[in-house]
Amino acid sequence: MTVTVRDLHLEVPDDVELFAHTRHLALPYVLWVPEAIVHRQTHSHPDAHYRSLVAEEDGEMIGTAQIGLAYDSPEPGQGYLNIYVRPDRTHRGAGDLLVRAAEEHLAAQGATRLFSWVLDEPGNRAFAERHGYRASRSAHFLRLDLANGTLPPLKELPPGVELRTAADFVDDPRPMFELDAETASDEPSDVGTEFTDYEAWLEETWKHPLLDLDLTSVAVVDGRPAAFSAAYTDRNTRYATSMTGTARAFRGRGLAKLAKNASLHRARAAGYKEAFTGNDTDNEPMLAINFWFGYQICATEVRYVRELG
């Protein structure tokens, strides 16, 4: 039995399909769709030095890694490596080889601190700690049964508030960029984010193949986007919100809840059966909103950190 590591072959459709399948087996709470995997590889900012790696055992793909630099962070030298091995193919050395290849690549690009999300399970945590990583913050994956659950009823909008969709901003997405940048910078994280490159945001986020502009809800106040809930779908049965947030000047008015409720109702009407999202465990306001909708925690990840010396 021989395990090897190589780059993902984007030009081979079956390779991308297998990458998505392998990721889904290890982390089923995320929308692993081939088009999204190709998009991230081909549209990530050059300064991210992004790579997708696969581990194979005698030709069978058993592990994957997505690695890069947090180029949009105000603090340089921060890299990430998110590594997942098929649950039925562990203890074969794939994880060790992927970590080694990822660390070598990131160190060569100038990374001095590495971050990795690890499922909150004893074996996974022990693996990270064996490689010199220490536990930091944590985050929950949450799931909502759209097919059988009961959503809160849609409420009458407050005076001066209008609910629109991201599709209404297709001719000029810059207001959405500004709202996304402001809310992302306030998210709890050990890696700060500053969205300053509009063109990069257009390529990476606005043109993402899974972003559903019609299901992405936007609360508008006096013509200005004030809150939004970004919807991604697999174009089949699974729906996910990647970001729900409110501009600082409009917080405390329930606008994010209004936007997300509208998006969830439209997603259910469109035939989506499951809704997923994720929240930092310290993000109590957003967790409270999601519990109000009926989301339940389905898994937890722990962020592990290693300093490169």
Describe this structure in words.
By secondary structure, the chain is of the alpha+beta class. It has two domains: 3-111, Aminopeptidase, CATH 3.40.630.30; 144-300, Aminopeptidase (3-Layer(aba) Sandwich), CATH 3.40.630. It has helices at residues 13-26, 34-43, 94-108, 122-130, 174-185, 198-206, 255-269, 284-293, and strands spanning 3-7, 51-57, 60-69, 78-85, 113-119, 134-145, 161-165, 217-221, 224-233, 238-246, 274-280, 296-307. 37% of the residues are buried.
Architecture blueprint of SSEs:
Blueprint: E1 3-7, H1 13-26, H2 34-43, E2 51-57, E3 60-69, E4 78-85, H3 94-108, E5 113-119, H4 122-130, E6 134-145, E7 161-165, H5 174-185, H6 198-206, E8 217-221, E9 224-233, E10 238-246, H7 255-269, E11 274-280, H8 284-293, E12 296-307
Parallel strand pairs: 4-5, 10-11
Antiparallel strand pairs: 1-2, 2-3, 3-4, 5-12, 6-11, 6-12, 7-8, 8-9, 9-10
C-alpha Rg, in Å?
20 Å
- Mean pLDDT, rounded to whole units? 95
Main sheet record: 12 strands, mixed
CATH superfamily of the largest domain: Gcn5-related N-acetyltransferase (GNAT)
Poorly predicted ranges (pLDDT <50, ≥5 residues)? Answer: none
| Global shape | globular
Measure the end-to-end span. 34 Å
Structural class: alpha+beta
Q: What letter string, H or E per element, gives the SSE order?
A: EHHEEEHEHEEHHEEEHEHE
Strand content: 25-35%
